[in-house]
# Entry
Amino acid sequence: MIFKWETEDERIFRFMKISVKKKLEWLYEINEFLNKFSSEKIKKIRQKLRAF
# Structure
């Protein structure tokens, strides 16, 4: 939901209230989605970036 009346600081504080566990779960789901639907070329690029 977009709250146009809140300031940038208020928005940051609102996002900070989300638990770390929930944030990590979202990141994990995004990562799984990207791995599932990425082309082989993109997967190779990501693998190279992880090696650094």
Notes: The helical segments are 8-16, 20-37, 40-51. The mean pLDDT is 89.
